[in-house]
């Protein structure tokens, strides 16, 4: 019996659709002020200057959770969030969930209290970012799992899944008479 093994591949960018599906591209992020890469194996890892800084879990081809690594320094966490704010194509929707999920971990709170305090400050400053729909629906379940009271959070703007469709206008008739009707 062969066991499935993930091969790690590196991509330049990722597109995360509103329903959580992902598409990878060799093209790098244009707007990112620093070097960001995507390493894909068992989960998606965001690489900043050669260091893994963020993980996105996608077990069935859809992103369900995200978190920042627990051993990041305060400056690394601030720089990563600042860089990810410039990135588009759905990754920016997972900044707030990653900060919340990281702050839920007791290991992070106990072993890295300075970065935990910085993460709480960053979470308050990121209220204007869009948040993934999946996290909005399942956030309470994660807080209950970790036995942490659910804070009252009002998320900022929520980007629509797609543009609204234009209604077709009825065809207009020209005022000139056609040669067939004479």
Which features would summarize this protein structure in a list?
182 residues, alpha+beta, five-stranded antiparallel β-sheet, two-stranded antiparallel sheet, 7 strands, 18% strand, globular, disordered N terminus
Form type: globular
Give the % helix: 25-40%
Summed up, the helix count is: 5
Largest pleated sheet: 5 strands, antiparallel
Low-confidence stretches at least 5 residues in length (pLDDT < 50)?
1-5, 157-162
Overall SS class: alpha+beta
How big is the Rg?
22 Å
Q: What is the tally of beta strands?
A: 7
How do the strands line up in the largest sheet? Answer: 1-4-5-6-7
Order of helices and strands: EEEEEEEHHHHH
Q: How many discrete domains?
A: 1
**Distance from first to last alpha carbon:** 81 Å
User: Overall mean pLDDT score?
Assistant: 80
Strand content: 15-25%
């Amino acid at each position: 019996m062969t066991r499935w093994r993930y091969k790690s591949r590196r991509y330049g960018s990722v597109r995360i659709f509103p329903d959580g599906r992902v598409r990878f591209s060799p093209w790098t992020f244009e707007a990112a002020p620093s070097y960001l890469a995507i390493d894909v194996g068992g989960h998606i890892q965001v690489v900043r200057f050669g260091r893994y800084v963020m993980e996105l879990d996608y077990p069935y081809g859809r992103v369900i959770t995200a978190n920042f690594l627990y051993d990041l320094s305060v400056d690394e966490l601030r720089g990563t969030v600042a860089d990810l704010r410039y990135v588009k194509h759905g990754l920016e929707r997972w900044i707030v969930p990653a900060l919340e999920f990281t702050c839920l971990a007791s290991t992070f709170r106990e072993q890295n209290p300075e970065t935990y305090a910085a993460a709480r400050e960053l979470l308050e400053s990121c209220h204007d970012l869009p948040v993934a729909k999946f996290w909005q629906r399942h956030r309470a379940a994660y807080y209950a799992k970790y036995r942490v009271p659910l804070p009252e959070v009002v998320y900022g703007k929520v980007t629509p899944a797609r543009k609204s469709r234009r209604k077709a206008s009825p065809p207009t008739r020209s005022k000139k008479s056609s040669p067939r009707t004479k």
